[in-house]
Amino acid sequence: MTGAVKLAPSILSADFARLGEQVREAEAAGAGYIHIDVMDGRFVPVISLGTPIVEAIRRVTELPLDIHLMIEQPERHVGAFMDAGGDVINVHAEATRHLHRIAREVRGRGKLAGACINPGTPVSVLESLLPELDQVIVMSVNPGWSGQKFIEGALPKVRRLREMIDEAGLATEIEVDGGVTAENAPVCAAAGASVLVAASAVFNDHASVAENMSRLKEALAAGAK
Ligand code: DX5
Ligand code: ZN
Known about the structure:
The protein has seven helices and eight strands, in the order E-H-E-H-E-H-E-H-E-E-H-E-H-E-H. The chain is of the alpha/beta class. It has an eight-stranded parallel sheet with strand order 1-8-7-6-5-4-3-2. The chain is globular and about 40 Å long. It starts with 5 loop residues before the first strand and ends with a helix. The structure holds D-xylitol-5-phosphate and zinc ion. The site of zinc ion (ZN) has 6 residues, from strand 2. Residues 10, 35, 37, 68, 177, 197 line the site of zinc ion.
């Protein structure tokens, strides 16, 4: 593991009626990225949000916007999400035949290129592509919804990716997305994750965003048990 683990609150569980406020709360509480889940109703059953929301969030925070495109043929839309203010553009390996081309296009615009793999997809699909990527997202739930249970099978994939990235001398971030809580965050970090997404563990009715972020940060500081 290298350096401090960044937290990337996902707005999918935020109160959309006061989205700007919730994003500002997350920033004030020490978020590293704001994670924005885009779903098209085809790659996943749900439709979530599009470029107008990204533009709106761009106006209220200085944080990098981590755009998670759960959409078919993302090559048709990456340009629009970069124009809207996305900083890290993540596309699913399962959704395109053109990961390499997309990564080149994103980096060509001076943005960060990310690739995501579903729980059923092996890390080997990304092996030859790692030098082209700034980030890999290992899904630890099946994409489509927040609030699902963490899939333990993601951990060996994170460990394997950490080995591959370190052996190649790359700085590619490993982001774990789905079911992250204060209980499993330290385990994800110990496996080699450098960014942790959390929606329902940050935006919920039990506690404030600041309290929830503190819990996650304290758990990470205490380390894996
Ligand atoms: C799932 C999304 C995740 C989701 C995480 O399709 O990609 O980013 O918002 O939600 P939690 O943290 O509640 O599992
Ligand atoms: Zn996501």
